Amino acid sequence: MVRCGNAVTPWAEAREAARELGDRLWPVAGRPVPLDRAVGAVLAQDLTALVGVPPFDAAAMDGYAVAGPGPEWTVVGRVLAGEEPGGPGPRGGGPSGDAVGAGAASLRRTGGGALDGSGRLHGATGESPADRAPAPAPDPAPASAAAAGPAPERGFPAEPLALRPGEAVEIATGAPVPPGADSVLPYELATLDTTAHGSVTKVTRVTGEIAPGRHVRRAGEDTAPGATVLPAGSTVTPAVVGLAAGLGHDTLTVRRPRVAALVTGDEIAAAGRPGAGQVRDAIGPVLPSLTASAGAEVTALRYIGDGFDTMVEALNAAAAPVDVVVVCGASSKGPADHLRAALTRIGATVVVDGVSCRPGHPQLLAHLGTPEDPGTVVVGLPGNPNAALAAAVTLLAPLLRAMAGAPDPGAALPPTARVKGAIRPHAHDTRLVAVRVTGGQAEPVGHDRPGSLRGAALADAYAVIPPGWSGPYAALVWLPRGGG
Ligand SMILES: Nc1nc2c(c(=O)[nH]1)N[C@H]1C(S)=C(S)[C@@H](COP(=O)(O)OP(=O)(O)OC[C@H]3O[C@@H](n4cnc5c(N)ncnc54)[C@H](O)[C@@H]3O)O[C@H]1N2
Ligand code: MOO
């Protein structure tokens, strides 16, 4: 049984009704989604750190990790980013052969200060710097060859090399700082003593002034492992995606309403240049970004022809797996406009049956459940593309944002502007006029008839012009900009 009055709903009330219905449906169930598909969605759970940041004591500058107050240190090796703390990693610590190459190589300690299989030097407890072997020649293998070689062994039980006071290792930004090192002396502050070994120049000693603790990022100093970094309810932005990745996540569990779109009309062409009598679909392609900017996701899009049975079947099929079905077109009173009759047939409850705004007045909001449990929501967008966009900002976006628990980005923007030039209000309905907004002034851009998106494409917002408006200030509804 459809409950619907014939009276259209005033524009502001219609928005409120959509928000209120969305609030009743909040929260939609949380679902894990890959990081690269999560932008714009709302976190269903607190975001916690699976690893600390930084995950280990790391150098913040390229230079020398030094142990003890100095100002002079003996260089005993080199650590590159990618090495395991306490041992060599994928690019395991040989000198690179540059002019200031390290005096010694890998910092992996194999116990007792022995050379490892590559013949490279290791620090060792009880071993004096003088006992340490000279560095080997630079590794002749090009980086690409190294990358193509067998995967380096990870997780070996290396005993961490501890620097003793007076020792230093050359270190790359991001590389693990050996235990015992107090600070990193950047190259810019370092004076080097070198000796030549054939074509290779080795750094044997480094001198400089550096305060204890400088240029060392201590493990967990930004974020401790297990810390909560963002609360549930936060919107996923590109920065949040990077943060989550850095903390070890591959997916985020988000509350993002699922939307199925039905684009109706025998005349609608889904792609390419429309043929004779055809009209290219200009609403379906808008919906993914439009819904994403309201915290939702289009999970299905189907083109259907005109026909009552077709509409009933498509509504039933689309509704089951989603939270919202958006029907584009068939919202008016023409012989092929079956949306309202189909909703009656499937027992929908119509919440908003037309809105007193131009464009967009045939738009519609209904649900398939009960007042207590509204179930899947149906939003009817008029077929005229600018009317569909007006309906999307009136009913669809407020509904989806409320269902997702997403903030209204427009709330952060100026709510009103002074209208430049004349706008004639409609006798009974609220007009939504495409305007460009600069410096608190709203200038109509034209080209905003119901069938044209040209004005909306030039505009920042719709100026809301109620019946009887005489200016000069108008409320603004900001147009979705996409990208979450
Ligand atoms: N007797 C009345 N007729 C109409 C009224 C009315 O109040 N009384 N309202 C008019 C208004 S306003 C609008 S808006 C449209 C809404 O029509 P529908 O939602 O039923 O949409 P259609 O009739 O299917 O199409 C209207 C128009 O838009 C084109 N269209 C449809 N879908 C798309 C699409 N996906 N992409 C691009 N263009 C589309 C379609 O070809 C038609 O030209 O009703 C008025 N009539
Ligand atoms: O009101 Mo219709 O929705 O103008 O195009």
UniProtKB/TrEMBL annotation:
Low complexity bias: start-end ranges: 142-159
Protein name: Molybdopterin molybdenumtransferase
Record Pfam families: MoCF_biosynth, MoeA_C, MoeA_N
Key words, A-Z: Magnesium, Metal-binding, Molybdenum, Molybdenum cofactor biosynthesis, Transferase
Family per record: Belongs to the MoeA family.
Function noted in UniProt: Catalyzes the insertion of molybdate into adenylated molybdopterin with the concomitant release of AMP.
Catalytic activity: adenylyl-molybdopterin + molybdate = Mo-molybdopterin + AMP + H(+)
EC number: 2.10.1.1
Annotated GO biological process: Mo-molybdopterin cofactor biosynthetic process
Cofactor(s) of this protein: Mg(2+)
UniProt cross-references to SUPFAM superfamilies, sorted A to Z: MoeA C-terminal domain-like, MoeA N-terminal region -like, Molybdenum cofactor biosynthesis proteins
Annotated region (Disordered), positions in chain: 80-159
Pathway assigned to this chain's UniProt record: Cofactor biosynthesis; molybdopterin biosynthesis
GO cellular component: cytoplasm
